[in-house]
Inverse folding.
């Protein structure tokens, strides 16, 4: 990954929303970053740009794009672990927050 790409990811994943890329001037912050400088904003927002990579998918249950290390694991769920893991995740991610952005829906209306 390029140095600009690494910098972009580091800044967009910053835990502090006051310092996080995209939280000051909305998406303008993102497009002002050197990694996205060459992207045509208008075409991107209108979804007119081709995707740089499109995996060949063979149906809804296609998993060949994932490492066999993970797809060969047996799936299981232990309710006893749920509470313990939830508490662990709360401690790790307690400084993160997010907004649900919805378009053409009533999710945000009260």
């Amino acid at each position: 990954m390029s140095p600009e790409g690494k910098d972009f990811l580091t800044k967009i994943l910053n835990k502090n929303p006051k310092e996080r890329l995209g939280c000051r001037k909305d998406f303008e912050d993102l497009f002002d970053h050197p990694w996205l400088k060459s992207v045509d904003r208008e075409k991107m927002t209108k979804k007119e740009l081709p995707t740089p990579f499109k995996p060949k998918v063979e149906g809804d249950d296609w998993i060949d794009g994932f490492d066999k290390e993970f797809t060969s694991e047996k799936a299981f769920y232990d309710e006893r672990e749920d509470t313990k893991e939830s508490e662990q995740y709360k401690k790790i991610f307690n400084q993160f927050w997010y907004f649900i952005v919805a378009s053409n829906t009533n999710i945000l209306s009260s």
Observations:
- DSSP finds five helices and no strands in the chain.
- Residues 2 and 27 are 21 Å apart (CA to CA).
- The helical segments are 3-12, 27-32, 41-45, 68-71, 79-93.
